[in-house]
Design goal:
By secondary structure, this protein is an alpha/beta fold. The chain has 2 domains: 183 residues, Purple Acid Phosphatase, chain A, domain 2; 64 residues, no CATH class. The chain has 10 helices and 11 strands. The strands form 2 sheets. The chain has a 6-stranded mixed beta sheet, with helices on one face. Helix 2 links the parallel strand 3 and strand 4. Helix 4 crosses helix 6. The two termini are 17 Å apart.
Length: 252
């Protein structure tokens, strides 16, 4: 086990948070992974250690999406998430915009190739054994067909099974955020994985504190109506895990 997992180190985020979870429940929310399987393994080990040191009746781990692209080990990340059935907590994996781009590339490679390649898709291609130069010199349809042969069926099944949101107590979890003025139960799936400025700039009460990734920052962003935990793991080596319990918040 990685030495980081042997000792649980936490940092309080807020001691008097207005939002809360039901008694006996703890949530571990993990930000955008982006192909950093090494960091995800560390966080999972730390969660195991935290649960051993501080047992709780109902523990839930929520992964906020963007498991692929930019980092070097996207397939390994997906395999790790697929294997979470034996994890000592309930695990929920949400759908991110990079997963949307990846699946969109298979359906319409001509449309999606420019944006997917530009924002980390070439790293994912290489992780599946396809040289990025091959992608640059061949039509997107040819690259799509080569990638389709390289991606295991279990990876497609996992990506198509992902949820778009989760809600527990006074917290709502989505990859990107929510559209202001729309009830949480009526949010559009596209907004949940793609929205930025209308959500980020809003001071509205969304009906719950929204925990999200998608928009990166150098550290955790805490507002009265949202908490952003995308900390650029692929380049910063900092994959954030937010721990929520009762009205307490801490960073693992």
């Amino acid at each position: 086990m990685n030495t980081k997992a042997r000792t649980t180190v936490t940092h309080p985020l807020s001691s008097t948070a207005p939002a809360s979870l039901p008694a006996g429940m703890r949530i571990y929310a993990i930000g955008d992974v982006h192909g950093r399987d090494d960091l995800l393994a560390d966080r999972h080990d730390q969660i195991r250690a935290d649960l051993t040191a501080l047992p709780v009746d109902n523990a839930v781990v929520i992964h906020l999406g963007d498991y692929i692209d930019r980092g070097p080990s996207s397939p390994a990340v997906i395999d790790r998430l697929i294997a979470l059935d034996e994890f000592p907590a309930r695990c929920i994996c949400l759908f991110g915009n990079h997963e949307d781009e990846f699946l969109g590339f298979f359906e319409d490679p001509e449309h999606w190739s420019y944006w997917w390649y530009r924002y980390g898709g070439l790293d994912t291609l290489e992780a599946y054994g396809i040289d990025r130069e091959f992608a640059r010199v061949n039509p997107p349809t040819v690259v799509r067909d080569r990638l389709a042969d390289a991606v295991p069926e279990r990876h497609f099944a996992f990506l198509y099974s992902l949820s778009h949101w989760a809600q527990f107590g006074d917290y709502f979890f989505a990859h990107a955020g929510v559209k202001p003025g729309i009830p949480l139960s009526q949010q559009d799936e596209h907004d949940l994985i793609w929205i930025r400025d209308p959500f980020l700039n809003s001071q509205q009460d969304f009906g719950a504190v929204v925990v999200h990734g998608h928009t990166p920052g150098e550290g955790v962003v805490v507002r009265k109506n949202r908490i952003g935990i995308d900390t650029l793991a692929y380049s910063s080596n900092n994959l954030t895990c937010l721990v929520l319990e009762g009205s307490d918040r801490r960073i693992l």
